[in-house]
Amino acid sequence: MIADDIRQAVLKAVKTAFPEINLKPEDIELEHPTAQEHRDYSTNIALKLKTGHPREVAQKIVVQLQETTSLEASVAGPGFINFTLSPAALMEAAQKIEIAPIGKGKTVVIDYAAPNIARRFGVGHLRSTIIGQALYNIYQSLGYKVIGDNHLGDWGTQFGKLLYMINEKAKGDFTIDDLEKWYVEFHRQSTPQMEAAARFWFKRLEDGDKKARNLWKKCVDVSMEEFNRIFDLLGVKIDFAYGESFYEDKMPAVIMDAQKISKLSDGARVVEIPGIKIPLMLVKSDGATTYATRDLATLKFRKEQWNPDIMIYEVGVDQELHFRQVFAVARQLGYVKQGAILCHTRHGMYRWPSGRFRTREGNTPKLEGILQEAIARAAKLGSQEAAQAVGIGAIKYFDLKHGVQSDIVFDWEKMFELQGDSGPYLQYTFARAQSVLRKSKGKNQKAKITGELTNEELALLRYLYRFPEVVEAAARQYAPNLVCSYLFELAKRYNNFYNNCPILGNDLRLKLTATTADVLKNGLNLLGIEALERM
Q1: Separation of alpha carbons 263 and 260, rounded Å
Q2: Is 41 helix (H, G, I), strand (E, B) or coil?
Q3: Fewer Cβ neighbours under 10 Å: the N or C end of the chain?
C-alpha cells in the first residue's frame, strides 16, 4: 500500500535528520486530511518527536524527503507534513488494489448470533448476526483463519421458567409461538412461588431429570427449525453452533480450577476481581451454575481447540460487566493464550422511536416478518427478480452503517433511500457501472493518463486506493461501519463522475469504472450484501 511506502520514507528521513531518535514504522501515524482535497496523506510525527519546534522539525524532515524521494511533501499548520500523490502514482495504485494478508498464521474466533432457544429470532439478535458475519468476512479477507461460533442460549435459569410453564400449560406438542407466549406470561404473572418453582425445574434439568431433559430437548428442536430458516434467508452460515449446554460437563473442571482464586460467600462460590466491585459468581447458593461458569468453560474449550490470537464476542452492551468479569477471571485461570486479544464489541440496541424493544413485554418484532417486509418493499421499487437481495441488503446495510456501539432507531424510509446512504443505492451504483462495462465490451485494460484530469476523475483516483486501508482499520476497530462509509463516499464520487464525464470510448474512464465496480463488489461482499449485475 502507498501508506507503507510513505511510512518507510518518513522513517528514513527522520533517521537522517535526527539520528539520535529511534523510531519504528508503526510510530508514524498517517491520515487523510478531510479539509484539503488536494492532499492525500498527513502525518503529525514532527509534533510527537519533541526534539525542537515542531514546524522546524517538519521542515527538516521535508528537506530529507525531497532529496531522497519523489514524494511531494509540504509543511502545514504547527508542524503537520502533508503529502500529495501525483496522478500517475494514483493511477498506478488504483490498478493494483489488494488487501494485504496481514493476518496470515493467526486465528480469530468470533462469537456471534447466539439467539435464545424457545423464542422466535427477534430483531434484537439481528445486530449480533449481521455485525458478526461482517467481521468474519473482514478478518478472512485479511488472511486470518476465522472461526465463527453460534453460542446458542440453550441453558440457564430461564429454562426453569419455561419448563415450569410447559408443565403447567402444554397439553401435547407445542410451537415456538407457545413458548414465547408462555415466557412473556411468566414474567407478567410472576410470584415468589413461581420463581422458586422455576429454580427447582432448572435444578432438575442440571441434575439430568428425564422429564426435564425431554421437555428441554423439544424446546431446542422447535427453536432450531426457526433459526435455520432465518439464517438461510439472511445468507448466513456459521461454522459451529456449540450451545451453552455443550459446556455442561466442562463446568466442573472450571469450578475446580477456580478453587485457588474463589471463595464462599453466603453459600455461593465467587471470585473477587481487582478493579471490579461486583464479584463474579461461579456457583449459586443452591448449587446451580451461572452464565459466567459456562462462558469460562467456553473460553477454556476455545483455547484448547483453536488457541486463537483474537476472540471477539459480538454481544450487546448490556453484557459489558459480565464480560469484564469473565475476561479477567479467564486470564487469571490461563484460559487465554499469552498476548491474545479479548474483545467485547458491545453493540447498541434497536429501538422504536418511542423506546427500546423488550422481549419480556412482548413488543419485540419478529425478524422473519421484518425481512419479508423488506423484500416486499424492494419488489415495489421495481426489483422483482432481485427483491430478496435488495431487501435483505437494505436491512444489513442499515444496521452496519451505524457505529457498532450506537443504538439504532428502526426506520424503513432510510433503509430504502435510492439517493442516500443505503444498501440499494450502493447496489444500484454497482449495477450502473456494470451496465457501462457491458456496453464497452471490455476495452478498459490498458488505460494511461495522457492529459490533464478532470476534477471528477481526480476525486475517484484519490479515493479508490484507500480501500485496503479501510478494511484494515475496520478489523482493528471492530467497525464494519468504516467499510460502509467508504463505499457510500466512493459511490457518490462515481455517480458524480458518471453524470459529468462521458465514459464510453475513453479507456481511462472505463478503467476507473471497472476499478470502482471491483471495489464496490468486494466491499459489499465483506458486508454480506450481494452485488447485483442488473437492477
Answers
A1: 8
A2: strand
A3: N
Dist. CA 388–CA 399, nearest whole Å: 17
For domain 107-344, give the CATH superfamily: HUPs (3.40.50.620)
**Residue of 295, 203, 282 lying closest to 244 (CA atoms):** 295
Q: Is 448 helix (H, G, I), strand (E, B) or coil?
A: coil
Write b or e for each residue in 502-524: b if 16 or more Cβ atoms lie within 10 A of its Cβ, otherwise e. Answer: ebeebebbbbbbbbbbbbbbbbb
Give buried/exposed letters for 173-203 (b at 16+ CB in 10 A, else e): ebebebbbebbbebeeeeeeebeebbbebbb
Q: What is the C-alpha to C-alpha distance for residues 78 and 44, in angstroms, rounded to an integer?
A: 9
Q: Which CATH architecture has domain 416-526?
A: Orthogonal Bundle (1.10)
**pLDDT tens digits, residue range 429-482?**
999 999 999 999 866 556 777 778 999 999 999 999 999 999 999 999 999 999
Per DSSP, the residues of 418-430 read: TTSSSHHHHHHHH
SS3 label, residue 150? coil
In b/e form, how buried is each residue of 84-115, taking b as 16+ CB within 10 angstroms?
bbeeebbbebbeebebeeebeebbbbbbbbbb
Each residue's pLDDT tens digit, 203-229:
999 889 999 999 999 999 999 988 999
Domain boundaries, given as residue ranges, for the chain: 2-85, 107-344, 416-526
Q: Do domains 107-344 and 416-526 have the same CATH topology?
A: no
CB 253 within 8 A of CB 297: yes
**CATH code linked to domain 2-85:** 3.30.1360.70
